[in-house]
Specification:
Elements (H helix, E strand, L loop, with lengths): L4 H6 L8 E3 L4 E3 L1 H6 L8 H5 L9 E3 L8 H12 L3 H10 L5 H11 L3 H22 L9
Antiparallel strand pairs: 1-2, 1-3
Length: 143
């Protein structure tokens, strides 16, 4: 399966940052990316001359706080899951502080991850569009 930016956003956890190089649409580690601009034995002056992430078109993707994972997960359970035991398991997973992994684990074990991914696509797409708009990132979106 090929992963998209939306898949990455779908998995951003609390206190986690992911970075997107928007001109290539690649997820990058900015620290590793900046290393290529440094000589073999860099000094303090070399670090001060590094280009900014913005000038390299690298932006931090939406934070966990910006994304309402629990909201879309709860909505999915309410709208799509009819089996009472499975609903109970999924809502139970959402009670944890670190609920995302547990929720996805229950989905995977019930072969529902792809269904959730399809169901939540519009939501995560709108999060990404809003994030781009707020940062004035000129990406083209199909309507």
């Amino acid at each position: 399966m090929e992963y998209t930016v939306l898949d990455v956003i779908m998995h951003i956890h609390y206190r986690e940052s992911c970075f997107l190089k928007i001109d290539t649409m690649e997820i990058v580690n900015p620290f590793d990316y900046l290393k290529k601009y440094l000589p073999e034995n860099p000094n303090e002056e070399d670090y001060q001359k590094l280009p900014s992430l913005e000038s390299l078109h690298i932006y931090s993707l939406p934070s966990y706080e910006f994304i309402c994972h629990k909201e879309i997960m709860s909505y999915y359970v309410k709208e799509m899951i009819e089996d009472k035991e499975l609903r109970k398991k999924l809502f139970s997973a959402l009670k944890y502080h670190d609920y995302m992994d547990k929720f996805y684990e229950v989905l995977e074990s019930n072969h529902l991850y792809d269904e959730f991914r399809d169901f939540s696509f519009d939501y995560y797409y709108s999060v990404f569009k809003e994030w781009c708009k707020e940062r004035e990132i000129p990406l083209e979106f199909k309507s």
